[in-house]
Amino acid sequence: MKKNLLAKLTENLALKIISVIIAIAIWYVVVDYNDPVIQRSISGVEVQVRNASYVANGKRVYHIDDQYKTISVIVEGNRSAVSGLTASDIIVTADLTQIVDMESTPYVYVPLDVSCPGISRENISLPRETIPITIEDIASQKFAISVDTGGTRPDKDFEIGSMRASMDSVTISGPQSIVNTIGSVVAEINVNGLSENGAVTAELKIYDTADNELSETTLEDDLSFDGTGVPEIEVQVELWRKRSGVRFQVETQGEPAEGYQISGITTTPGEITVAGTDEALEELKQQGNIITIPAELISVEGISSDTEFTDIRISDLLPEDTMLASNVSETVTVQVAVLPLGSQEFDLDVDQIVTNNLGSNLTVSYSSAELAIRVQGTEQDLEELQVSDISASIDLAGKTAGDYTVPVEIVLPAGYELVEDVTIAVQLRE
């Protein structure tokens, strides 16, 4: 019996499928012919204010929060009339003459009206019948305009030397609740890839005291700038070329403690990159691309051990019309090495260090490429001593993978003494 049923179902299968397709097509034709009634929700319909002068005058102004400046509308009607509607086809108005109580606080409520060509009013519904607005005194305040590149960068060979906006300041007028919270006015420009001087059009951005940006609709609808709309601002950008390989020359004042000498002075960083006008860079070149750290900042009076002078601001040392390139340290540290008289520092390549008892499954690496070894002897002996005459070794017995600071055993030729014990930081890895 099941086989007979299956045979009947599959009998003339192609004809049955064609019949279903034809039935669906006929249904669509009938539905389209009948033009059924449907509902559509259309969002983003702008609320248009009527009779603004009823509230706004020389001393008072109205303000609508951004969330109430657009609204969603539900439209019901024949599909042919409703399906093609857009937000621009629907007119929602708020007539300020319809405000019932002008003195209520903090809001007064304005009735909304809606219309749409070809759709009767009873077939259009709104999610709310009124919107709240605030009526308040007008405030006016003058703000300086700063210029910002918004994180954009010019061509890799340049830095922004100077930026000059076409307006230094602007007077902003509008509702007290907005104007009194303005924290900054910024002309933002895009300088990505810029490689020559010129004018760049800016986008004006307003931030409140909490550093939140005011919306574009607030700028256009609620505020006036020098009595007009949002101003157009241009920024004249001057680019400065970069110069790398600039070094420091360190001057000192005073003398170390009796029996001690300065054996060397280094800086961190050793070199920097600056930017400047063509004239300033040429003058720097004539000085050997050297920036001097003056003696009043580096006093070695009475010191008897290595001393660091930190947090020296590089910008305070730069010549006129030059600046630090971006991503360069703003400070320099000066390291003054001090040794007893009759001693000298030798730099031993870490490849010369013998590693004893290193686990067979481990490799060793060092924190620096050279090891400073301070040796004491007669002046003549020190002149004759070579780095290759110095032997260095470390014992790594029992150490597993990890980071360690280990003592270095130093063996010197006869007649020499080690000024101080030596250690080195090592990394052991499997």
Automatic annotation (TrEMBL):
PANTHER family for this protein: CDAA REGULATORY PROTEIN CDAR
Alphabetized Gene3D superfamilies for the sequence: 2.170.120.30, YbbR-like domain
Signal sequence, start to end: none
Record InterPro entries: c-di-AMP_regulator (IPR053154), YbbR (IPR012505)
Keywords (A to Z) from UniProt: Membrane, Transmembrane, Transmembrane helix
Protein name: YbbR-like domain-containing protein
Residue stretches spanning the membrane: 12-30
Organism from which the protein derives: Candidatus Scatomonas pullistercoris
Tree of life domain: Bacteria
